[in-house]
Specification:
Blueprint lengths: L5 H12 L3 H14 L1 H13 L8 H17 L7 H20 L2 H14 L3 H11 L14 H20 L8
């Protein structure tokens, strides 16, 4: 899939934020029909992670991701639970490698991710949404943000790879 521009991501988020309850329910029904595994994954993650933020916030950002990617590429192949598990495992391995490496390797790996990640504008917007309440005082960020970011990156990776069929440039 082509990289979604920051302008398109912002426009889609704005569109979603202005939806009526009926429009949001219709979109949720469409997501459930087109990507049931992602819906179940995010709902289960929200419950398992015992997020302290408002209920549904992980699903809301997940819907932004799905809708942005669907708008960019058209209907996407249905993602399977196995694809989600594989992407999550890859993301966890990446984080473990960061944790095991030196500070220099950590910065190099993050710079490489920022430079090479196919959906960096979407991922960056996702980070912005998760950190929205902590822009003035990042140390007050909710404890569940790191795990939520892992879950949402997993969704981005899986949809990006599914849209390419054989895989994408995205790095984990």
């Amino acid at each position: 899939m082509q990289t979604i521009s920051p302008e398109k991501v912002a426009a889609i988020w704005q569109e979603l934020s202005q939806m009526t309850q009926t429009q949001a329910a219709d979109l949720a029904a469409r997501m459930q029909e087109e990507q049931p595994a992602i819906l179940v994954y995010l709902l289960a993650a929200e419950q398992a992670d015992e997020a302290t933020q408002d209920a549904g916030w992980l699903m809301e950002i997940g819907a932004l991701i799905w809708w942005a990617m669907t708008r960019e590429a058209g209907p996407l192949p249905m993602v399977t639970p196995e694809q989600l598990d594989a992407a999550e495992d890859a993301n966890i391995r990446f984080l473990e490698q960061l944790d095991e490496g030196s500070e220099i390797n950590y910065h190099t790996a993050l710079q490489s991710l920022a430079a090479d990640y196919n959906q960096m504008p979407l991922f960056g917007h996702t980070i912005g949404q998760l950190m929205a309440d902590a822009t003035e005082e990042p140390e007050l960020v909710d404890e569940g943000v790191g795990l939520a970011l892992l879950r949402l990156k997993t969704v981005i990776d899986t949809l990006d790879q599914a849209s390419d069929g054989a895989g994408s440039r995205s790095r984990t």
